[in-house]
Specification:
The structure is a homodimer of 212-residue chains. Chain A has 212 residues and is of the alpha/beta class. The first copy, chain A, binds a DNA duplex (22 and 22 nucleotides) through helix 3.
DNA sequence: GTGTGTGAACGACTTCACAGCC
DNA sequence: GGCTGTGAAGTCGTTCACACAC
């Protein structure tokens, strides 16, 4: 059920995440079932896509009826690994990091911020949400000792690879980077990069070539 | 040369943006030429991919030598539409918006922030970078009058579609959204969505199923 | 020899279409 | 009748491999 035989495409996982968000909303509103058609419209995809995505993990629907909202919600949480807590550190005590930490869905989904780090002496020791900004030099040891799963990287591109290497050596397993650079890590470490400049340039391209 | 016959894949445009970033760095360091192999290593892709991507727009390289760094940099800026200024508004005077506005590459690449908007009376009128936070109700008129090209949307998911509809009616042409929801717009409006929760859940999935 | 440019082969994701069950 | 589950078909992007230019 949560054991797909084939490797699942990243695009599928992204859509599962989106289905979950809307299903949680429907569940909160007391809706009992949802069809692939309804989910597709909410998420901006197609009914066939919804059914295919879900079918990789099991047969959750009832023919003629649709999918049971509450039950499917729980299945998706399970599939995405959201029914457990993940230990997260935020590296770089700037605006991006604090925007993330502020985000409600963050804690709700089991992402626990166990530390915030910066190398700027002016920031070290300052209160930051529930925590206090710690010296970056303590990061590797902390990652190892507290079994940190995920690091959110919000530091300049030039410093990024160096910090990544230290965290990888310390046992980090996943990284969400906002640094506008490509990161090199061993295969067992998962990396996602969000590059705002790249997104904007994509829009610039679209505006420039929208006629074509 | 900047007139591709076929539609260009989004993934290709994203890589062009990345090539550009590294080429600008090489150019600043005085390097004259770069091979597809070198660019591929820097960007974490393959030489064949680099050559294919560039070949959609012309023959910029010299066989046996590689690509002229400075010239290719300019070609890519042209292709991506970065040799002109874009008028940008930031909607939502929170952490995300300010993180973006703070980002140096933003202005460098010709993205000019012409206004920041919020509906919170406590924020309206406050200084915000070089600007002052304006009342969201003035947004549609401002978009029309100042021919705003791009809106960066950093407001709660529940308010997003409504604001988008207003901006579309007012003539916006592109939207970069940080709201964790799917947006519906007419075909002539370009939209990119950055969903941090989705990225984190992708990592959660990877950690949960890393053995598989 | 070195490295580009590109059709052709390959692989991956999406869409189709219909059998099967409620 | 309505809607799911899924093999098959289609589409799109990536990789290969080699002719060609320097």
């Amino acid at each position: 059920m949560t054991l797909p035989t084939k490797r699942i495409a990243e695009s599928t996982v992204r859509r599962l995440s989106m289905y979950l968000r809307y299903l949680e909303g429907l569940d909160a509103m007391g809706q009992r079932t949802a069809s692939s058609d309804e989910l597709a419209q909410l998420c901006g995809t197609t009914p066939a896509q919804v059914r295919k995505d879900l079918s990789f993990f099991g047969s959750f629907g009832k023919r003629g009826l649709g999918y049971p909202v509450h039950e499917l919600t729980e299945h998706l949480q399970e599939i995405l690994g959201l029914r457990q807590a993940w230990q997260v550190v935020i590296v770089g005590a700037g605006k991006i990091g604090s925007a993330l930490a502020e985000y409600r869905g963050f804690k709700q989904r089991g992402f626990q911020v166990v530390g915030v780090y910066d190398k700027n002496p002016d920031k070290i020791g300052r209160p930051w949400g529930d925590a206090v900004v710690r010296d970056m030099s303590t990061l590797p040891d902390d990652v190892t000792e507290h079994h940190v799963d995920i690091a959110v990287l919000a530091i300049p591109a030039d410093d990024a690879q160096d910090v990544v290497d230290q965290m990888v050596a310390a046992g980090i397993r996943a990284i969400l980077s906002f640094a506008p650079t490509s990161l090199h890590v061993p295969a067992h470490v998962a990396v996602k990069t969000v590059n705002m400049a790249m997104e904007l340039e994509g829009l610039s391209y679209a505006l420039t070539n929208r006629g074509a």
